[in-house]
Amino acid sequence: MIQALVIDDQEINCILVKGLLENFFPDRIRPYATSNLAEALELITTLQPELLFLDISMPEMDGFELLQHVRKQQKAEVIFVTAHDAFALDAFDHQAIGYITKPIVSEKFVRTVSRAIELIHQKTNTGLVETLKKAIITSGNNQDKRITLTSQKGLTFVDPAHILYCESSGNYTTFFLVNREQIVVSKQIGSFVSKLESHSIIRVHDRYLVNLQHVTSYIRGNGGLLVLINGKEVPVSVRRKNDLLHFFDE
C-alpha cells in the first residue's frame, strides 16, 4: 500500500481528494489528509508518504515552499491539486508528476494517480532489483548470469538461453520462453538490446528480438522470416536483413 498525504488549507478539498482515493484505489493507496500546516509537517515526518497531493495557494506556506521543505527529508512524488492553471509550468519545474485543476474531473484524477502508482512501483522494484543483484553476486553463485525481469507479478530471474524471442507492444515487451511461459515487462524493447545481444539475442525487427540459438531456418523474402523451434515465424525487417545474414555467415 502506498502512503499518500493530501494537504489543502480548505478542509472540504481534503475530504474530497481523500474520498476519491478511497473510492478508486482502496487496495493500492492508504490516504491521509490535513488542512493544518503544523499537522502536515508532523505527518510528513512520521508517515514518510510516497505520494503527496498539494494545493498551491495556501496562507502560511504555499505548495512550492512546502515541497522544498519536504524534499529536504525525502523524495516523494507530487501531484498538485489547485483551482488555478497558471502555475502548471512552475509545478513541472518542481518535478511534479501531475497537475489537476479544481473542480476535479474524476477521469483525469484516476489517470494521473494511476500513472503515479506505476512510477512509484517502478522505483521500488528498481531498488529491490539492485539489492537482489548485489546479494546474488556477493553470494558467489552463478545466478548473476541471469537477467531480472520485473512484471506486475513480481521479479523473475531468467537464463537468457531460455528466451525464444521478445515482442514489443508500445511501452511493453513480452518475453516468450522455451517452457511456453510469457512475461510482460513495462519497458520498451530497445532497453533490452544491449543487455541481450551478448547472448545471441538480437534485434531483427523494430518489434522483435530473437534468440538465434533457437532458430531452425530462414525463409527468404523482402526481409524474410525466421522460423523458431516452436514453429513461430518472426519477420525480419529489410534494413536488418543484411546484418542478420552476415551473422549467419560468421
List keywords for this structure.
250 residues; alpha/beta; Rossmann fold; OB fold (Dihydrolipoamide Acetyltransferase, E2P); 2 domains; 7 helices; elongated; DNA binding; phosphorelay response regulator activity; phosphoprotein
Summarize the structure.
With 250 residues, this protein is α/β, with parallel strands linked by helices. It folds into two domains: 2-122, Rossmann fold (3-Layer(aba) Sandwich), CATH 3.40.50.2300; 146-249, LytTr DNA-binding domain (OB fold (Dihydrolipoamide Acetyltransferase, E2P), Beta Barrel).
General description of the model:
- With about 250 residues, the protein is α/β, with parallel strands linked by helices.
- Helices cover about 35% and strands about 30% of the residues.
- It has helices at about 10-25, 35-45, 65-70, 90-95, 105-140, 195, 240-250, and strands spanning about 1-5, 30-35, 50-55, 75-80, 100, 145-150, 155-160, 165-170, 170-175, 180-185, 200-205, 210, 215-220, 225-230, 235.
- The strands form four sheets. A five-stranded parallel β-sheet has the order 2-1-3-4-5, sandwiched between helices. A five-stranded antiparallel β-sheet has the order 10-9-8-12-11.
- It is elongated, with a radius of gyration of 24 Å.
